[in-house]
Amino acid sequence: MTTVLVWLLVVLVGGRMRLRPRPRRPIASTAGSTPDIEAVSAAMAVLGGLRDRFAIGLRALRPAAGAPGPEHVAAWCDGLARAVRGGSTLTAAIGDVEPPSPCGATVEAIRLALRRGASLREACAIEPCPSHLAVALTVLRACSGHGGPAAEPLSRTAATMRGRAADAAERRTQSAQARMSAIVMTILPVCMLGLLLLTSGSVRLFVGSSVGLGVITVGTALNIAGWQWMRHLIGGGRQ
After folding, report:
1. Angstrom distance (rounded) from CA 153 to CA 139
2. What is the DSSP string of 111-136?
3. Which of 38, 65, 76, 180 has the fewest Cβ atoms nearer than 10 Å?
4. Containing H/E element for 32?
5. CA-CA-CA-CA torsion sign (144, 157, 69, 97)
6. Is the full-model pTM beyond 0.90?
């Protein structure tokens, strides 16, 4: 009997002393919270629009993808020279030698003209034509018009194209620091604007106004123009 009473007493005391979670207090809304949220939303929307515009501008400034470089033209000319030395005619070599993929569209147009009955001189008169590939087509037209062995002119054309590729690689190496500086000077203002939008309420309010949007638009246009001008200075005269 005594044991039962002691057990009941322990249960009752333990139930009273049991730790309970503290009640949650409702968060009181302040009067200035709604304007802050709206300012942050407007600032993020403006920043997203600037990011999209800047990405579009960078894509527009990039050189066209797929243009044949001097190394591609050199590989094609080497293949034609090997085929001609092996006993093929120049017309047969153009049909048999598989060109690099950047030269594929132009070579396929030449093959199509040859299948339609055009002479090699007429088939190679393609306008407009990439500058490096135009040199090879000029040599092909000269070989077709004057006759004689075409392997040596094609080999010299390939050597010229390899020299151009080496010069371009050297220019890229020498201008690496300038290109890095151009990238940093172009991206840094955008990153700084994003940091200020996230940390400064006054900047968010200014960007959300019509004057702020005008300033940001003008700054973005100047930034893209500066990027284009620096690219022109770094790669000036490069074909």
Report:
1. 7
2. HHHHHTT--HHHHT--SS--HHHHHH
3. 65
4. none
5. positive
6. no
